[in-house]
Amino acid sequence: MREIRIEKLTLNVGTGKEQRSLEKGTILIKHLTGSEPVKTITNKRIPGWGLRPGLPIGCKLTLRDSAKIKDLISRFLDAKGKSLDPRCFDESGNISFGVPEYIDIPEVDYNPEIGIMGFQVSITLERRGFRIKRRSNKTAKVPAHHLIGKEEAIAFMKDTFGIKVGEE
Length: 168
What we know:
Blueprint: E1 4-14, H1 19-33, E2 38-41, E3 56-64, H2 69-79, E4 83-84, E5 95-99, E6 119-127, H3 150-161, E7 164-165
Parallel strand pairs: 4-7
Antiparallel strand pairs: 1-3, 1-6, 2-3, 5-6
């Protein structure tokens, strides 16, 4: 029950109100994963930024229980030089980092249709038993002793993917 596993991998491209960048971001995520991303829609009106409700401002893709998740994470970490800053880990054991240019990823070639573009990677970790917070009947909190902390997430990433954290 204490074994940590990857619950999901989320890729996100935020483009703002620029629709051409949104199309490039959609092509990028499809190029990297082979799956079609969904567009994210704004709910707020921010006149200074030119945003209004219903305007697409980015795209995202969530992968769960896929056989290729570990391979994708390993390739994204290679683009970061197998090194992450400690600030990439939050207190709940989740990991988020950005890949500034997709051409840094091994085995990914430059696509002139996309140009140079980056994206954000978020990895959510869980243990067996975390289902109690998502189930429809008798939803409950995960006990504090079963939660994943920052140190455990760092240890999991070091063991599983061989990364360096900080100035090691």
